[in-house]
Amino acid sequence: MEFVRWLASVVFKLFVRTTVFYPENVPAKGPVVVVSNHESMLDMFLIGYRVPRYIKWMAKEEIFRNKLLAKIFTALGAYPVKRGSRDVGAARTTKELLDKGEIIGIFPQGTRSKGRGKKLPAKPGFVRFAVEGDALIQPVAIWGKIRLFGKVYVRFGEPFSARERLGEEHINDRSAIQQLAKDTLDDIYDMMEVPGGVSQG
Which pTM was predicted? Predict the structure, then answer.
């Protein structure tokens, strides 16, 4: 894992010039659900290489059908989820990880946006996981030109409690959960600007 982190730091310094804002916002301990817009296959590395904790990523099942990729992603802490249906196994794994105080990563839009941005809505599962696992939600925004010698920005927002945002009276309210998922994704897209007074690197 440390080798992967080192390799990512080299790639994101020399080949995909990356500036990261506020990685210190990530809670140092306790259960956390990291949520981000999904722009490329590099996203999990762009988010994870500056975070001291190892994020366990929920990744689409198709990746694990390739034996080599399955070994690589499993070694990196990723685990599969079936898209388009409720995956009980993935949900159980997520709950177990959060119960252990781990940090997990989910792309709530379910697939790469490919330029669709907010037109691709957020699925509410991450809110449910955060509520059930009593975890904080850590929003992250990625934007820029994610390509060779492109310039990319990664910005970590302020973590928050889904339970507190919803209020105890709404923690099982589907419409409230869906609204919080939408609001979180909206906030992520609103974060896509270099903070005032901060160097772009």
Answer: 0.91
